[in-house]
Write a structure and sequence with these properties.
heterodimer, A: mainly beta, Ubiquitin-like (UB roll), 5-stranded mixed β-sheet, two-stranded antiparallel ribbon, 32% strand, globular, B: 466 residues, FAD/NAD(P)-binding domain, Arc Repressor Mutant, subunit A, 7-stranded mixed β-sheet, 17 helices
Chain lengths: 99, 466
């Protein structure tokens, strides 16, 4: 779907749904996931359909993911840090994510 | 933190205004959600200042953003609040209070004047299947390109209409990416009725018109299938896009692809001006809500101003001119003894008029795509709450009077995006179904918080007053 136009310069390791991904330090989380071939970022709570980023400017909220246990993070705005654990946002109540 | 002027949005409009005001001696804060200035049009301009490859692919109109950002950075007296969301705009007696959210901490900025330079957003493009991963806006893909150097892979399909469709196709070709097809909803040439306006636009903005023709020639030279007058598209796939079907010249056709990028022009991003309680009017030429402004950019709310594409779509070059003009207006409001600079005002306004004529031509050449304005019933309109076009039409038929009542009936516009993405589409669908003017249907009432803010973040409120 998307590919990098140049090699990663400052590589850090993050995870998506437990899978390890190499990413550019400080790039948007959305870019890191796209570059790793991931397009489905969340499940819509209304009908459980898989969704991915649509606008990339913070408007549509389709890129919401869970980062280090915190839900509702906009992947287009959050920046990659080493060790980030990212999961799909389900939108459904998840007690362990609320703390 | 108490300022003379707080500017929301560090795109060309906000930067130009900040430079002008700071030079006149005002205390200015500029706030933006992105980590670095430039707005969407000059996104990541600082970081890309030396990225020769990327600058070459994106072209000179992007490259010039770095100079504007650098000028602002070198201007004394500008307080930068980057990577910050504004979640509250509260008019007070002697100014305005803004609630900010920066890295999980909330804070307050007070200013005598607030300027909303929140720019443009892409018009929503609802069509069957557009919620599938792998379907996104052309602007979104361009943002990934500017911000992260990410390129769509060969085989990407571009659809929709307008200058950005041609620009992005040409940018991809420059970067060595071959789109599989360009599905253009617009006719190839201007209608005879639009030719007088084209002539006037060409007189005032010849380089821009020439650029448009050159971009189209590049698509043709590269041998890309460029279909004009496409009538409708649909995206298909189970959990992600794998196929696009489209109607062209009376026949149904299909293309296999994992990435479909769509664009139907841009509209003013009025979320903040609506939340601030400013009056808005429906602009028929741009098919969008715009804030009601006086000649200087003052809204109906005291001490709140709107500038740039957030006021009406005129583009980045116009935003810079408007920023200069507004800087002089606000400087005189802050200190009435500031001398008038009628000569500069006049020459800036003249240049602005030329760009307004160009925009008028573009607005008429690329009115909203009918297939996206009135999509079939099974199309998702409110992506957050999964409300379909058919749900909205059924509610209108049963007597629902406007978007705010619609919200109560089916939750459209009540998800995390708060109606940003669907508001324009919902208003137009309701108007058509009800057989009324859009201006009679109205728009969602927007309330604060403007962005989701958690109780923990609110509890972290720090008063940034020195």
């Amino acid at each position: 779907m998307f590919k990098r136009s140049s090699e990663i310069r400052n590589s850090v390791s993050i995870t998506f749904e437990g899978q390890q991904i190499d990413a550019e330090d400080g790039e948007s989380v959305a870019a890191a996931l796209f570059a790793a071939g991931i397009s489905g970022f969340r499940y819509a709570p209304e009908n459980a359909s898989l969704r991915g980023p649509y606008c990339m400017i913070g408007n549509c909220f389709e890129c919401m993911v869970e980062i280090d246990g915190q839900g509702g993070r906009q992947a287009c705005r959050e920046r990659v840090r080493a060790g980030m654990a990212i999961r799909r946002h389900s939108g459904l109540p998840k007690p362990e994510a609320e703390s | 933190m108490t300022m003379d002027v707080a500017i929301i949005g560090a795109g060309p409009a906000g930067l130009s205004l900040a430079i002008g005001l700071a030079k006149s001696g005002a205390k200015v804060a500029i706030i933006d959600e992105q980590p670095s200035p430039g707005g969407q049009v000059y996104r990541a301009a600082e970081r890309n200042a030396d990225a020769t490859d990327l600058l070459g692919w994106l072209g000179p109109d992007y490259a010039k953003g770095a100079a504007l950002v650098a000028e602002a950075r070198q201007t004394d007296g500008i307080t930068w609040r980057m990577a910050s969301s504004v979640w509250d705009i509260r008019p007070e007696e002697d100014g305005c209070e803004l609630g900010l959210l920066t890295a999980g901490k909330t804070s307050v900025v007070r200013a005598a004047h607030v300027v909303l330079a929140t720019g443009a957003m892409e018009r929503p493009t609802p069509f069957p299947g557009w919620t599938l991963p792998g379907v996104m806006s052309i602007g979104a893909a361009q943002t990934l390109f500017k911000d992260s150097g990410l390129l769509p892979e060969d085989g990407v399909v571009l659809a929709g209409q307008g200058p950005l469709l041609y620009l992005f196709a040409a940018q991809l070709l420059a970067a060595g990416i071959k789109p599989q097809a360009v599905l253009d909803f617009a006719p190839k040439w201007a209608a005879p009725s639009n030719l007088p306006l084209l002539a006037r636009a060409t007189l005032g903005a010849a380089p821009q018109i020439a650029k448009g023709l050159r971009l189209r020639a590049e698509i043709k030279r590269a041998g890309i299938a460029h279909h004009y007058r496409v009538e409708r598209i649909e995206a298909h796939g189970a959990d992600a896009l794998d196929r696009v079907t489209f109607r062209h010249k009376g026949g149904e056709r299909h293309i296999e692809t994992s990435l479909l990028l769509v664009h139907d022009g841009v509209i003013s991003n009025t979320h903040a001006s609506m939340a601030a309680g400013c009056a808005h009017d429906w602009d028929g030429e741009q098919a969008a809500w715009v804030p009601r402004l006086d000649d200087h950019g003052r809204t109906s709310r005291d001490r709140i101003w709107v500038l740039g594409d957030g006021a009406r779509i005129l583009g980045a070059d116009a935003a810079v001119l408007q920023g200069r003009i507004m800087a002089r207006s606000i400087a005189r409001d802050l200190d009435p003894t500031t001398p008038q600079d009628a000569g500069r005002d006049q020459s800036d306004r003249k240049a602005l008029q030329r760009l307004a004529t160009l925009r008028q031509f573009l607005d008429r050449q690329y009115p909203p795509v009918p297939a996206f304005s009135q999509p079939p019933d099974e199309t998702t309109i409110c992506r957050c709450e999964a409300v379909l076009a058919g749900d909205i039409r059924a509610l209108v038929r049963s007597g629902c009077m406007g978007p705010n009542q619609l919200r109560a009936f089916c939750r459209a516009g009540m998800g995390p995006c708060m109606g940003r993405q669907c508001g324009n589409a919902i208003t137009r669908i309701m108007a058509k179904e009800a057989g009324r003017e859009v201006s009679q249907i109205g728009h969602f009432t927007i309330r604060t918080p403007l962005k989701p803010v958690s109780l923990a973040e609110l509890a972290n409120l720090e008063d940034a007053d020195p």
